[in-house]
Amino acid sequence: MTYYLDFEKPLAEIEGKAEELRAMARQNSEMNVEDEAAALDKKATAMLEELYGSLTPWRKCQVARHPERPHCSDYIEALFSEYTPLAGDRNFADDHAVMGGLARLDDKPVMVIGHEKGNDTESRIRHNFGMARPEGYRKAVRLIETAGKFGLPVITLVDTAGAYPGKGAEERGQSEAIARSTQACLQAGVPLVSVIIGEGGSGGAVAFATANRVAMLEHSIYSVISPEGCASILWKDSDKMREAAEALRLTAQDLHKLGVCDRIIPEPLGGAHRDRDATIESVKSALGAMLKELEGKKPAALIKDRRQKYLDLGSKRLAA
Amino acid sequence: MNWITNYVRPRINSIFSRRETPENLWSKCDECGTMLFHRELSANLNVCTSCGHHMAIRPRDRFTALFDGGIFTEVKVPEPTDDPLRFRDQKKYPERLRAAQKSTGEKEAMLVAEGEMGRMPIVAAAQDFSFMGGSMGMYVGNAIIAAAERAVELKRPLVLFSAAGGARMQEGILSLMQMPRTTVAVQMLKEAGQPYIVVLTHPTTGGVTASYAMLGDIQIAEPGALICFAGPRVIQQTLGEKLPEGFQRAEYLLDHGMLDRVTPRTQLRDELIRITRMLMGQPPAVAGDLPAPAEPPVEEPKSEEQPAPEKAEDGTASEEADQTK
What we know:
The complex is a heterodimer. Chain A is an alpha/beta fold. Chain A has helices at 9-27, 34-53, 57-64, 72-79, 121-126, 134-150, 167-171, 174-187, 202-209, 227-235, 241-248, 252-258, 276-294, 299-311; strands at 81-85, 98-105, 108-115, 154-160, 192-201, 213-217, 221-223, 263-265. In chain A, strands 1, 2, 3, 4, 5, 6, 7 and 8 form an eight-stranded mixed beta sheet that branches. In chain B, strands 3, 4, 5, 6, 7, 8, 9 and 10 form an eight-stranded mixed beta sheet that branches. In chain B, strands 1-2 form a two-stranded antiparallel sheet. Mean pLDDT of chain B is 86; it is low at 302-325.
């Protein structure tokens, strides 16, 4: 069963009908419904093109959070070989919201780190819905430093609503952990590339995405605050999330214009979840291209390149 | 004033009586409710003389009390692009900015200065919570980078006083990008081997805490300061759990190993002098040799904005101490 977003309701109807027809035909072999079903398919495709050709920022948020969107573990499984998860922050715990470890991308060893949201109730709870606690950032610091020591490129896959607003997370120094993780990213003398695969939520995302190159999937978002949060603070009304999403300029296309995102990775028609394999393939080629751009650079040059990228984000020449 | 003057000369009054006696010579302590005379309060650096509660202090007043003789030179901060997102909520962002500039008399939410503190040359930066909640946008990012660069150039320690609600939402992703950006500034200091001392003041929250404000070589907080990433209200709403007494306050953080020290504002200057001198390998300060800290400026409410006491030259500030009083 496909999960439909609220703005996809009309689409659900058409696709539902086509499916129904085909189901009937399967039971009754004399029926010939293919023409009719194909017409419906065509209509559905046209509708998808229309809907996804002009997604509003809020709808992009919905797509970015789509429960069937491929998650970090899907990418890791499909993109890498010999994935060897590494666990723990050596201080307190292993945070299941953050997965990471050694792996091979086209046979070359890399360190991969990402947020995992989970895909059913049980796994979502285990992964804390992709919201890291301090241990998650500290694990990332450890992995980034290990990668730096052995000259392995770091790939981060970002998909989080943000840091976990919990009592324990605060007590164990969530802010310091995020700051240190950002710092570790900046200090890494190896190529560090990042892909925002779904939600890039605030500090939780920055802690992983302070990279030489940042790519975003076409319908992913990256923002200082969730549209709901922004609406409740600035509009005093959390139902104004559409306006807030608009104002925050959080889409991949906006961020590309602002110079925060270096590359937009196209998604299949109707979003990443409609064709996972194609999405994962696009991410793979983007990763390859970004790593190639950084190939052969010395550690100092990589650090300088990364620094300059962020230093530039405040200068006069930023055009809206 | 009586009813006649009120009745007869309202217009004349409005022209000539700008320098009337301030209306609020007394202010009430937020904590214990004691009425405090404004001179007494500002002489005590806005710390309640009755209960020791720390009220907000503006960066300019803080610097006047911090630097020898109240003399400091502002460090110029490069201007960022105005309103890069053309952000509009219920108000336009430039309108909010102008309103904040008008009410505070400051340009933005951070002030950077250089000068001497107990004859120890330093660069200092202070965030202004009264300016849009001290929020971190591109200007604040630029200010921190300017402060770090200046400290590196002059080979001085950087003392940073943080106070902020977090990132400035009106600058969207560009405010978020100030987290890595200011972390680069911290790196510059680290590589140059210059001390970076953070004084966390009430409140320091959100993205500010998760970047430059938690990366100091020494982390000091003022008593009672709220310091957190996610605020208590957010946590309470999300978890519906009652939070312990003093949660996310300076003392709580000290207990949980997140800070080096909690120091009252009135003792902060001496402590900063001690620490910076030790980190810079300087001999101990000789108490008698030190120029007296300036009287904190007596803030006359409604009075014209005082021009900042500025000194033009290099380090020899102490002799000019009297001029600014």
